[in-house]
Design brief:
Largest sheet: 4 strands, antiparallel
Protein name: YVTN family beta-propeller protein
Number of strands: 35
Organism: Nocardia acididurans
Shape: elongated
Strand order of the largest sheet: 1-2-3-4
Structural class: alpha+beta
Number of helices: 8
Keywords: Membrane, Transmembrane, Transmembrane helix
Strand content: 35-45%
Transmembrane segments: 57-74, 86-108, 205-227
Distance between the termini: 90 Å
Length: 554
Amino acid sequence: MQQPGQPAPFYPMPTGAAPNSPGGPAFPVDCAYVADARTARRLVRATEWARWRSAKMWIFVATVPLLLMARRIVEILRHAADTGDSPLQLIGVYFMLFAAALVVGLAATGIRTLRRNPGIEAYAAAGTELRVRYQQDAMELPPATGYSTLEYQQITDFLAFGGAVIIRTDSGRGVALPREVVPGFAFDRLAESARTPRRRWAKPVLAAAAVMSVAVGVVFAVGVVAARNDDGGRTTISIASKSADGVMAFDPAAGKLYVAYEDRDHDADKAGGTVTWISALAVVDLATHAVTATLPLPDGPQDIAVDSSGRTVYVLSSSNREKDDSSVTVIDADTDTITAQIPIGGESERVAVDEKTHNAYVFSTSHPDAVGRFGIGGQHGLSLIRPGTTTAERPVPLEQGGYDFAVESDSGLGLIGAYSSVGVIDLSTNRVIDGIRLAFDADEIAYTRGKVFAVSDEGKIAVVDADSRSVVRTFDWPGSKPGNDGIGISAVAIDPEGRTLFIAGYQADEVLAVDTQTGSADTLNVQEPDHITVDPTTGDLVVFARGGVTIIPR
């Protein structure tokens, strides 16, 4: 009686004798084997490990690291890289991920070998008799294998593994058979029929090598882009989420940076399904790059000013201009605590401090209490907050309207970036005393060392001497065109020496570093720069973008 696990040949098979050879049987040759409890598991193991002979498997493993690095690659290509990634570092990451993918793949294969395979059990379950008939040009298999007749010329790959043989055909399908139904002559015949018997590993290895070569080339190219984007040792400090908007100001005496920002309240969004916002003031220690305090603010921080010698910080907020609800939050810079909340009203845009008098000024583009010469309210106005007080004086109407405002402490003057001019205000009387004509609107202004730098979103820059109140020179941004839509200026800043003017272009994902002497410019790639300032101690450029503060050495 035939027992499970034993071969059952239907012919006497002399050693080394092939069918139709002297001393050997004639075709067809029948072989049979009764499967035991381990046969199906043996075939499953062989089937699963044989997958690693497939070019598709190695291509997949070599591609996985690129998929895992895709987000980082996209950020680098979009100029959003926050830290320097050298080509070698990125290539190292790729190969570490490749090794991890390989280990995970091998582990997954090991787990699959322990699982049942219904397809194999259909013809190799314990007690099942497997019959294979070998013809001159084909072999007949049990129907449960998915084949009835398999011609030898269809065979593309043949592998013996762990007491089993794996046969693959040109259709991509395969079948696993116990070694017992593949006698010596059949083993040789099947191996000869495989199209690349001596190069069975060449195809998958070459495929993996090709994919890895392309991947390394891509990663190297991205690394070159990352190195260019880095601009030399940037440091990024996380403040809020990427949807946050913010403004910044330095306290050089204490080595601190104040960041007033508005961010989405993601927890409230998830709970209520509506978009809600929170506003806060973050205090950053520049020595450690750590956020040392966070203070709540009214909605919509618009501007911030620091009186370093007076140890006071002023944050202007304007959440709903239609309701005239702008206000100034006053913070003690020594303790980083809120000392006052001063209502201003009107559509307020800027707050600035006179470091000599320690007075703070709030520039409003429309204030109901700023009554002009014809008795009409809603004019541009300038509100004064004296040091140590908790109220703002009634705004003084300004005949000079504008967009931006700055204070020149040395001469006690206020400067307004206005329509086709730079307005000059005597801060002792809060009256406009002069207007310096420009050929364009001064959308943003910056001041240092007696020079005013007026910038237009249309691509124009004017350098104004504040003492003589005259335009020193006017020039275009490099690459700008007359009448263009601009880059979407979000802020400008000037270095302490007045040599480099920085222009943040929110729409263009860049910051222009313009040489004020030659007019030439470098482009710093920064995604969505919302606000910029310059460290008065080091001269480093500081950018608030996508919820983080990035320090760019200069």
